[in-house]
């Protein structure tokens, strides 16, 4: 009987290596997919996070803008009121209503002073005489 | 036991089912994304895209120092949403609340809130019933009141009631400067300027409406990256006038006093800086309150200071006299015979209000002699007189930014006597602003400065300033002495012996001229109604302002000459000028003691002049008497001789 021996070592080895290789490829692919998914998830999560943050800030901006607008309106209202109250007819009305005494000024109440070595004002329009608007206290005349 | 074949079949079925499902989905997706894309896209766009328009704020008008003359005042509007008030009880509750708070009749409010639908016109012209979601319950509620009502609405948790704020054009100083500022009206939801500076500067002060188109979230807030298009709203530029509010208040108050005292039909006061041409204050009566539309009548909203013309009368006299002085035709001491008050020229009589003998040019101005001025004009000659007057700006518009402006009537109807009438302010019609410009030239040494109402235009956000330049014009006077000479003459008008002693201000030299012009009826006959004016400047030698006060048709006053410029207008010139000088802290020209001494000396001189005049009158009367007596004796001797001759015969 012819007998021969078959060396299965190599085949086994090859099969094992093949099986091992197949496994590792799957693992690698799975790992890569996982990483990609993770990256995608991370990116999407980050984007969602940023969008949410932006929206939150956006709402805050809208709120603050409204507040500014309200304050502006209130300021306008106060300013209009101030202008009404500081107008001469209103002041005059208050003077007569509360009988506040206002004395007419008398030129005799004023004492005039003379300027000494005052720098000349630059003429504005170049006309012959400009109104002298500046006078300061240096030496009393009387 | 399930065989591999069974599993395979099931897998196949599932695969086919999934495939069919995917096929259906793909078909549906095709339908949605490609076939109905336009329709669905526009629907989605309409739902999530919002377009809001933002009205910019109309520019405000300020005085020189930044006091608001025309502003934008926030007011509230209470609105209802009937679609939210489906329950009748709630509708009644809301109506009762609003009626009570806003003082409105309950049935009207209820009717407004109860109407849930309205007929809406479609593009194809048909009508369909639409839900009513906006109904205005009350407009223009004062801001504080509006805030209170809104607070109460939120406390009571009333649905379907809300409010919004709008800016309303307001004039915080009411009647002050109303004619110059003008007013606006709302027409088709747009603010339309109707008169005054509001109209002239509308291009600058009008705001630009902005539109933002954006995608919105469910609660209506704009999405962060959802902006589709944006056109920003722009606020209008702010105008800064040359007017000083405190001085304007003085003018308004004094003009009111003048109107009450003289019973005049109209009154104006214009104050200007002679060096820059700045109009410091303008008061015109009658006027209106732009905040109260019931006071606004067509005849009140114009600007008589530029639209209406009047015969200036004697306030015209310093101008031809200044021209004659400048051209060396006369000197202040040149004497003219004033013909004792009556003079005939070209067959027409010219009269003076007082009898005057031979007097100097200075006295002609002091006593306001028509005959003297007419004789000076004859010395000047017609063409030169016309040139002098037009160089002072008569017959030309002043160029202030107000419309319509009149040129006046200048050498339109010329006759032989025009040369004697125009220099005394007859046969010529001017606007009050033309007079102010001419007096500015007299005060500043001969520069016909351009009058300005607006000093600067300011950008509301950047604060960038656009300054309106000062235009002093070409100098009229060739002789440097002309200014001091004409001022010296005009000073005498307010000193004892002059026609306007009531315009004198203690401590200051006032240069001015009175004017009393009889108004013509239908442009023909004179009618015994007058325009009384006083124009002048203070302090005379270094003027801070030129002021014209005109009292048109005064009907009552103290004494018989109540309609004279020296009586009807000069006292108000004095009070306005005095108060303004105090406000401007202008130091007096002299101490009270010096002023009293100057007044006494002037009064003494006036007395002496009068005595001289009376003496001359007496002398003339005596001469006349003597000559008549001589004639009589001559006649009697002739008669006696004649009788004797007869007897002899």
Please name the defining characteristics of this protein.
heterodimer, A: 142 residues, mainly alpha, 2 helices, disordered C terminus, B: 649 residues, alpha+beta, Penicillin-binding protein 2a (Domain 2), Beta-lactamase, 3 domains, seven-stranded mixed sheet, five-stranded antiparallel sheet
Structure description:
The complex is a heterodimer of chains A (142) and B (649). Chain A has 142 residues and is mainly alpha-helical. Chain A contains 2 helices and 2 strands. Chain A has helices at residues 9-86, 88-97, and strands at residues 113-114, 139-140. Chain A has a two-stranded antiparallel sheet with strand order 1-2. Chain A is rod-shaped and about 150 Å long. The longest helix of chain B has 57 residues, at 592-648. Chain B is built from 20 helices and 23 strands. In chain B, helix 11 (318-326) runs parallel beside helix 13 (370-380). In chain B, the strands form 7 sheets. In chain B, strands 2, 3, 6, 7, 12, 19 and 20 form a 7-stranded mixed beta sheet that branches. A 5-stranded antiparallel beta sheet of chain B has the order 14-13-23-22-21, with helices on both faces. By secondary structure, chain B is α+β, with helices and mostly antiparallel strands. In chain B, 40% of the residues are buried. Chain B folds into 3 domains: 52-241, Penicillin-binding protein 2a (Domain 2); 245-589, DD-peptidase/beta-lactamase superfamily (Beta-lactamase), CATH 3.40.710; 603-649. The interface between A and B is large, with 36 and 48 residues.
**Structural class from helices and strands of chain B?**
alpha+beta
Residue fraction in strands of chain B: 15-25%
The CATH superfamily of the largest domain in chain B is DD-peptidase/beta-lactamase superfamily
Query: What fold name goes in the CATH topology slot of the largest domain in chain B?
Result: Beta-lactamase
Largest sheet of chain A: 2 strands, antiparallel
Runs of chain B with pLDDT <50, length 5+?
Answer: none
**Average pLDDT value of chain B?**
90
Helical element count of chain B? Answer: 20
Task: Find the structural class of chain A using helix and strand composition.
Answer: mainly alpha
Which strand order spans the largest sheet of chain A, edge to edge or round the barrel?
A: 1-2
Oligomer: heterodimer
- SSE sequence of chain A, one letter per element: HHEE
Low-confidence stretches of chain A: 130-142
What portion of the residues of chain A fall into strands of 2 or more residues? Answer: under 5%
